[in-house]
Amino acid sequence: MSQTPPIIGLTTYGRYEQHVTGNGYYDQYYAIPADYVDAVRHAGGVPILLPPGEPSWKRWLDVTDGIVIIGGCDVNPSHYGGDPSHPSLTKLDSERDKTELALAQYLAQEEQQPTLCICRGFQVLNIALGGRLHEHIPDIRERDIHRNEQGFWTIQEINSTPESALAQAMGQSQAHTFSGHHQAVETVAAGLNITAVAPDGIIEALELSDHPWLVAVQWHPEKSAKTDPSQQNLFNTLVQQAKNT
Predict the structure, then answer these.
(1) Does 136 participate in catalysis according to the annotation?
(2) Are 46 and 68 in contact (CB under 8 A)?
(3) Active site residue 186
(4) Does the predicted TM-score (pTM) go above 0.90?
(5) Which candidate in 134, 146, 211, 220 is catalytic?
(6) Per residue in 172-192, pLDDT tens?
(7) Is 73 noted as a catalytic residue in this protein?
């Protein structure tokens, strides 16, 4: 067991995914919301950023003790047999898709570092292991409870399986979470277990049964980590698991 603070790698947005205002000198950025970094630091981890497009991405795992695959843009539906021309898709990023799908598959099947997958990361994991998505929740539900009317954050209830790693980490089986997604799991990949659902039946968390600690959530725990201990506890548990490896 390591006595030094574990290094936690966090994936980033793609180079064109987010417009960053400022000095006007650059038009490409690898960015990440500060909330993720803050949550890892508060948990006692040392965050480092993992930008997509790295051809030698496996070298990341030589220096990291745990991984967070963060939220962001939609995965191209071509990766799961969906409709790449669906009118409700966000900006797509092939560079990010390629890196994160490979990383998620490797973490699930080979390296098995403690891993927390968030929103897009939740979807990336499912796709990487052979699952499918619904491109747009309003296609399958009359009412979308996962975003507000403007398409941004809403507070949503989730209920998790009490014996799951998720519930054990949160310290409770029910939570009210920040949600902002418009896609949902259609088919769960083999080996993944459903461990939380929303009131409308949409799958909200998955765990890999044959893995020391791999938890994937469809919501954004980093958004409320500063004020909700159950959500900070997800990062605390990730860091503790990384210390124990």
Answers:
(1) no
(2) no
(3) no
(4) yes
(5) 220
(6) 999 999 999 999 999 999 999
(7) no
